[in-house]
Each structure stands twice: as C-alpha cells, then as structure tokens.
DNA sequence: GATCATAGTCGTCTTCCTGACGATAAACAC
DNA sequence: GTGTTTATCGTCAGGAAGACGACTATGATC
C-alpha cells in the first residue's frame, strides 16, 4: 500500500471504548489504569490502535474481546448469543488531544450485561467497573474519600457522550435488553431503565408498556423469584429493535 | 510533533460532507465531479484531507465554506446567521474503501437553506445539487435518460446514512428549520418535512402541532404571500432545539 | 402457621395528543 | 364576481400515558 507521506499529514487512528453495564442499580463503565505516560497511573477508557488491515468495527470488537472477553454484535444483529451490543459513537480528533502526536480516536459504545468481571491482560487491579457518575465528577472525591483524578485525555467527554447516547437510545429502541442476561424479568428491565436514567419508574405503567409493545418481549414460560417477592415471568428480547411509540423518559 | 512511524500504521484522515437542502420539493445533496483517479469523472461527496493543525469540525467547516460559501454553526448554536447546520455523522474506515491507501473518513452532515448555488472552485459544471433519490439509485437512469453511475468510493453509503440521520432527527428536534431561510411560513416548513420524509402531511394538524409547541416558532409579525393563496404569518426559529413530544412521521 | 414485607400483575380513570376532516379567511387569476 | 389556492381555526373520536387502587404469590419473621 504505497503512499506519498508529503501529500497528507499522517495520523494515528485508535478506537476507544465506552463499555457500559448496570451493576447494583448503577450505570457503570469499564475503566483501565494507564501503565505508561502520558497520564500514567490515571484511569482511562480501554482502547488501542487500529491495525493496518482492520475495519473500525473490527478493531473495536477486538479491543472489547481483549478487555472483557465479550463477543460483539452490531446494531442490526439480534441478541442471540451472550455478546454485547457494539456501535460506533463518534470520532474525536482535536490536534492536542494526545500530547505525543496527532491521534484521531473513533469511539465506540458497548452495552453489556453485568456478568463479566473485568480483565485487563489478566491484571484485575488495572481494570474496574466504576459508576459513571464517579468517573465523570471532575476533581471530586470518590466513595472511599480518595480524591478522584479526571479520566485521561478527553475520555471524560467521550464517556459523557456515550452515556448520553445510551440514555437517549433506550427511549426509542429495545437496546435496554442488551444490559440484561438472555432471560430476564420485567422488573429487571425496569431497574435497567431506572439505573441508566437515574429516575424511578412506576412498575405498573412500565409493565403495561413493555408487555404491550409487540415484538419487544417474548415470554419464555419460566418464572423466577431471584428478586424476592412474587415469582416473575421470564422474558427474552423480541425481534423488534425500534420502540414505537417510544418509552418516555420522565421530565425532571 | 515527533512520532515513531513503526509504532502504529499511518492513516490519511479526510472529512466528507453530506450537504442537504430542499429544492423544488425534493431533498437534494451536493455532489462534485471527481477530476482525477480513482473514480475520475464520477460524482462524489465533497471533502478533503484534514490538515495537521485542524480539529475535525474545523476541517468540515472549511470544506463546507470552500464548496458552498456557507458558514457553519454547530448543533448547539442557534440559527442566528444565515449559516448551515453542521454536525458529525459517522466515520468510515474500511481498509479497502480507497484503493490508493488507508483512508479514514469522518463524514459530516450539513443542512442548508435553498439559496446558495454550488461552486466547486468556481467551476459550476463540476458541482451540482442532485436529488438524493437520483444519487442513491445504483445503475439506474436519471431524469434525462442518461445512465447514472453510482457515487465514488463508499459515498452512496455515507449519503444514505446522512439522509437517514436527517430524516430521523427532524422528528424530535427543530432541525428542519435549518432548511428554511431566516423567516419562513408554516407551509414552507411543512414542505420541508414533506420533502425530507417523502410523504404528505395534513396542513391543519401540522399547523396545530408546530404553533402549539412552545419555543419552536417565534412569529416575526410579518406576512407573505410568496406561496400564493392567503397571506401566511412569518416565523423565525425559536430557541427550542428538542421537540417534545416529537413530530410523528407517518407509517407507510 | 399467622403475619409481614416484597415484588409482580391487572384495572380504572383522567388527561393529553394525534389523525381525520369540516369550515372559514384572504389573497390572486380570470 | 367566481374559482382556485393556501392559511388557519374548530370539532370529534381513538390511543397512550400518568396516577394510583387492588390483588397475588413468594420468602422472612415471630
């Protein structure tokens, strides 16, 4: 693949990942600790260089597998396996976003169920699920009272954009099911919405809405009591990807 | 800005523009004729290399100004001047999308009122507004009976994605006003929706909807009869950017 | 084992929004 | 004036959502 380097400025192209999940009623993102400068020791989004023969989505899927072990499927594919939803988010190319050189980062958004434990090259201390609220508060203090350093590079902005994308997209699509295991209850799905939006939803109206939307949920016949209380029906994600009319996010 | 070329594969980064407008009741996109290989003589989306000191949005705004003379304003800025709306669309990086070398293109979407005549370096024959329907039909025949060559590179895909973005975004935002001049009537705005969606809307329900949504339209006090018939009130775009509840796109 | 707490599920009622469509208003062409 | 075109207001029925009451089926507690 010959080219004339004088004809255009050379760029490094990376993919960065906003991997979201819901743990303990909170929206969490995967963060990895940087092992080398710049921003050594700081938390950052997982990511890496795009290889010479890779498409952008391939690179993102590869990084996702390396960091979490999750297989990815695109926005169009159904939620058959236990993989994560993966889609392109946006591209960030400020000339000064990386002090070393000109780097353009194609950010991707991944939504995963709670199950997997993070693994960054097998070193658990260098990867963690952190509440997005905690990752986004600049210069504040975490739950343990330790001062919180902001994310490396422009990753706070990328994370914020990814969270906003997720928040708006579960309104009009069935994407919230990507946060759930293969089989789940209406209540578990509702808790996903509540965690992502940070609001409380009326269980009765929510139940009516999701069970009344054709193609959204398919009953599996089983029930579970894992949430306590009366046994709940188990559902699988249906074929519908678009919700019409959408799920309404409460105002304030 | 030193870097080690062996540490990562070098990429060329370009911006491509999907510039949409509404002319004669049809959604049209700006196309330029390629003057050199590959795809010499074929129509393509305007675009170019990102410069070494430019942000991506700056590069897109520069290309837009070069091709159309339009000033751009971002998604957040109000529609004060006569500029065009400009936002990032998506990034395309298939390893084989450009036969010469590895090129990653950050596509942007611009929405402009009808006014400007295209100018590609002053040569009008090398730039034109074409109905998107015509640009997207692969291997068909245009209105003049001439065979239509598909757009260069993956630009048909990019254009299709841009059109889809515009179609969905005018549902829940006030973005349709970006297709209108500073002052416009309800009927003109309705014709924008009809052209972008390719459907007919009920004038009475549309009028009730847009005038009843707070912050969407601000009456200027003037009237016009430029559409014929009874004089219509003139409006300016209001401060509201999000439409809640959204404008509903008819099914079928 | 009765009681309680918890979560799930079904209904009702009111309100808001939309789609369908009738009716009137104000310009222009002839 | 008559007809045509576009704008604007009004009415009505149907659907969806928010608020909330009521009942059900578990496990936990006394």
From TrEMBL, chains A, B:
Molecular function per GO: hydrolase activity
Domain Nudix hydrolase: 10-154
Entry-linked Gene3D superfamilies: Nucleoside Triphosphate Pyrophosphohydrolase (3.90.79.10), Winged helix-like DNA-binding domain superfamily/Winged helix DNA-binding domain (1.10.10.10)
Superkingdom as given in the UniProt entry: Bacteria
Keywords tagged on the record: Hydrolase
UniProt family annotation: Belongs to the Nudix hydrolase family.
Protein name, per record: DNA hydrolase
Organism for this UniProt entry: Streptomyces phaeoluteigriseus
